[in-house]
Amino acid sequence: MKFGVVQFPGSNCDFDAYHALSRAMKRPTVMLWHKDHDLRGVDCVVLPGGFAYGDYLRVGAIARFSPLMQEVQAFARRGGHVLGICNGFQVLLELGLLPGAMLRNKNLKFLCQHVHIRVEDARTDFTRAARKGQVLRIPIAHFDGNYYAPARALKEIERRGQVVFRYCDADGRVTDEANVNGSLHAIAGIRNEAGNVLGLMPHPERASEALLGSTDGRAIFESLIFSLERRRPSRRPAARTRARHD
Amino acid sequence: MRVRILVSFKDSVLDPQGQTVKNALHTMGYAGVKDVRQGKVFELDLEGVTRKEAEALVPEIARRVLANPIIEKFEWDILKGR
Q: Could you report the per-residue pLDDT of A142-185, keeping only the tens digit for each?
């Protein structure tokens, strides 16, 4: 499978994501420029962290109007896989591909630290290499990660099981203290209804090699690779069977 | 025509920056300040736009770009011109 990492002016985790996907996960990865109109045949689009367009106006607000994001939107609507990390998550919220919005962290501080997140659903294409209830240790680095959705929308999100990750302590307990940015329901990551779009505030690419202090982020990339590559070979056996009869 | 658009958090949304300003004001002794809400102000110069057109255009721009309707509300008025 092929990954594509979108670059906006102000992206600053684009090469981290590229490194994690191409070197740590050893999968073909291309950079996609925000002004292009072509997704270059990628199987999964990754929106990296940073400050796209300087986060002027609101986080993610301007990035959503870039030409490439119109392609990403169409790609997602066709069922293409999109992973938004940190600022990428904020862009997906502004685009409306994921429900809700981000507010400033509850303590009004930029938070740059390792956190624990609990896998709430291990059946998604982004988490099937993990276990339900598994605790991942992954860093965050953001000012606006305080997830908000109006009460009714939040109820729907929970009812549909769209919460994929919640902030928790090292033992997997969701506490007020562990919910560092004040997100409603301690939400760290959500998926869309169809399950092909995921956004999360923690940075799995910064936890993809032992040298970085944690390899827990690999679970997300491994899940994607497993989900997308397993689907393809599943079509191949039929072809192989035919070839054998020839 | 010059219009001013004021974007602020909906009443149902917690505004931590406004709270911090309020706390600072209380510390300074302004005990009468009951609440503070922080927002953003935009001034738009519109050319070749009638008042009637502005009444459709400005809310559209505010809803689509300047405010995030999930968390923010807006109000606007005309500063200059007609």
A: 999 999 999 999 999 999 999 999 999 999 999 999 999 999 99
Q: Which residues of B touch A57 (CB under 8 A)?
A: 65-66
How is chain A split into domains, by residue range? 3-245
Residue of A nearest to B72 (CA): A101
Domain count, chain B: 1
Superfamily of domain A3-245, CATH level 4: Class I glutamine amidotransferase (GATase) domain (3.40.50.880)
ipTM: 0.84
Q: Transcribe A98-129 into DSSP letters.
A: SS-EEE--TTSS-EEEEEEEEES-SSSTTTTT
CATH code, B68: 3.30.1280.10
Nearest CA in chain A to B62: A57
Strands (E), A135-175: 135-142, 146-148, 163-168
Of B13, B17, B66, the CB nearest to A148: B13
What confidence tens digit (pLDDT) does each residue in B28-53 have? 999 999 999 999 999 999 999 999 99
